[in-house]
Amino acid sequence: MGRSVLLFAVILVAFSGCLGGISPSNGGDGSALSDEICYTDSTKGDPTPTYCLVEERPPNLLIENRHASDHDVTVQVIENSSVIYSENISIAASSDQPTRHVLKDVIQSPGEYTIRGTVDSETSDEYVESLDERYVEMAGEQWVIRITADGDVVVDRIRSH
Question: Which of 34, 40, 80, 104 is deepest in the core (most CB within 10 A)?
Fold first, then answer.
């Protein structure tokens, strides 16, 4: 019986190490051990962060209208004083819930970027972000250009809860 308990304990310890947060795709310190596009690190944060390669899974940008009027929004992503992404969209007025539009794959590589949102060719705001080779993904959208209920524009990073 003693050997059975010892063998069971050894198997349990080995198995619990796999469940304890260190996945096969990371070393538990946030570093990737493979070429996987995304991996999670359950040793950090609650909720557990997911790290993704920028080149393989580019981050998205959310445009959100909480105002009671339709708006035209110009989105620009700027790197080294050059516009590398530009999109003009019309977004409908908010009713009970904010109106949302997602722009996919707005940044394709690591670097320092300015995300600028201009509403109705008048009001603008911007946010500067530096992306490493991997970024912490939060539901796909990394940034938001938000038109507030008062009609102001705010560009910000989406924070996890």
Answer: 40
Would you list the DSSP string of 83-142? EEEEEEEEEPPPSSS-EEEEE-----SSEEEEEEEEETTTEEEEEEEEE-SEEEESSSEE
Q: Tell me the two tokens of residue 14.
A: 């080995």
**pLDDT single digits (tens) 36-79:** 788 888 887 777 777 878 877 788 899 999 999 999 999 999 99
With vertex at residue 57, the alpha carbon angle to CA 51 and CA 63, rounded to the nearest 5 degrees, is 100
- pLDDT in the model for residue 109: 84
Domain range for 27: 2-51
- 158: amino acid identity, one letter: I
CA dihedral 103, 109, 115, 118 (to 10 degrees): -50
Query: The domain spanning residue 133 has which CATH number?
Result: 2.60.40
Please list the ranges in the chain whose pLDDT falls under 50.
5-34, 161
